[in-house]
Amino acid sequence: MAREFKFKGYTFYSEEEYNEAKKENETIEYIKARTDLTNTETVVALYNKMIDRKVITTVIGLDFLKRLRGLALKNEMINESKLRELPEVNVSKKKKEKQPLTTVQKLRRENLGLKIVIIGLAAIIVGMFVIVLTGKSSPLKSVYERDIINKYSGWQQELDEMQQKINDQLYFLEQNGIYYEK
Hints:
This protein has 182 residues and is mainly alpha-helical. The protein has five helices and two strands, in the order ββααααα. Helix 2 packs antiparallel against helix 3. The longest helix has 37 residues, at 139-175. The protein starts with a strand and ends in a 7-residue tail after the last helix. The model has no long low-confidence stretch (mean pLDDT 81).
């Protein structure tokens, strides 16, 4: 939702325009306090000078210029040809409407959406691999378990064979009456 700034009966849709209008209003109040606006020649000179210097940029200033113009034209001795035309100012009476997106902007937006989807899918795939490789029923885990079991079963078989040889030698020694001390 766009923020609205109200000042002197006008609505501004950006803080920058609002601050500019306030600044312009201060300038106008300063001019009013120090200028004799009952003197037609002074009013005409002030009006034309303000337009020439392009000091008016908001509707607040434009409103003041219209009042000056009216004061100058009140005296029938002043012809409208002596007054400069009112300048155009950026009038923001309406909210700035959103411009429809261009084709390039639409494509960029879609491209960004696709990139997000691809990154999400890649993260899911990586997560699946992590689960498969570290889970209880991991294929690699069973391969490692099988290798360890084969290695230990080989050792067990060697130990059993050695134990059998020792038992055979002890039996032989006992049969022949040779005793050993523990």
